[in-house]
Design goal:
The complex is a heterodimer of chains A (114) and B (117).
Chain A (H helix, E strand, L loop, with lengths): L4 E3 L2 E4 L5 E6 L6 E8 L3 E9 L2 E5 L6 E5 L5 E5 L8 E8 L9 E2 L3 E5 L1
Chain B lengths: L2 E3 L4 E5 L4 E3 L2 E3 L5 E7 L5 E7 L5 E3 L5 E5 L4 E6 L8 E8 L11 E2 L3 E6 L1
The chains are: A mainly beta (114), B mainly beta (117).
């Protein structure tokens, strides 16, 4: 158990809908990351937040957005969903300094868009 | 841009045999390197990491990896594989690129390990 929690574990929804994925980092970690894992793209970095502020951005679609709240939990919002958004979404967290790259992953949320 | 190549999509070994999974990276400066393992339906677990210093790093579950700057490689090894090691293994690179790359890990495509009894 990494200490990172994600809810829900599974999500099935229809095209055009909007969903919210939630992540709670390990105790004491200020950084939260979101990754997407799909068969064709592999593991792709989406976005990073550090203590409530956006810190780094990957190839995140404009239909996707994220935020980190004062209690450090994070939410990833996916809207106007398409079939191709079906994937496993991971949240990871890390401490500060060099350890920012030592990321601990949650169990993931499997999103299925029908 | 940073990138990671894992040349072997699928490797099969017999239980008790030695294992080496290959990883080559591309990065403009000294990289931070990682190996993660993912069991079916699970998240990624950090096996080991290299930041600096000794180029042979030890990890959990009896795994080790060696950083070879001249070959841009960070291969994962285990002297004797157990059936429970069957999983998918990912090599990742990050570094002090700063800016919009701060904190970003770039992953390889993964190597699936099958262990025969």
């Amino acid at each position: 158990d990494s200490g990172v929690t994600q809810t829900p574990k599974h999500l099935i929804t229809a095209t055009g809908q909007r969903v919210t994925l939630r992540c709670s980092p390990r105790s004491g970690d200020l950084s939260v990351y979101w990754y997407q894992q799909s068969l064709d793209q592999g593991l792709q970095f989406l976005i990073q937040y550090y203590n409530g502020e956006e810190r780094a951005k990957g190839n995140i679609l404009e239909r996707f957005s994220a935020q980190q709240f004062p209690d450090l939990h994070s939410e990833l919002n996916l809207s106007s969903l398409e079939l191709g958004d079906s994937a496993l979404y991971f949240c990871a967290s890390s401490a500060a300094g060099t350890s920012v790259y030592e990321q601990y992953f949650g169990p993931g949320t499997r999103l299925t868009v029908t | 841009a940073q990138s990671v190549t894992q040349p072997d999509i699928h490797i099969t070994v017999s239980e008790g045999a030695s294992l080496e999974l290959r990883c080559n990276y591309s990065y403009g400066a000294t990289p931070y390197l990682f190996w993660y393992v993912q069991s079916p339906g699970q998240g990624l677990q950090l096996l080991l990491k290299y930041f600096s210093g000794d180029t042979l790093v030890q990890g959990i579950k009896g795994f080790e990896a060696e950083f070879k700057r001249s070959q841009s490689s960070f291969n994962l090894r285990k002297p004797s594989v157990h059936w429970s090691d069957a999983a998918e293994y990912f090599c990742a690179v990050g570094g002090r690129a700063g800016g919009t790359s701060y904190g970003k890990l770039t992953f390889g495509q993964g190597t699936i390990l099958t262990v025969h009894p």
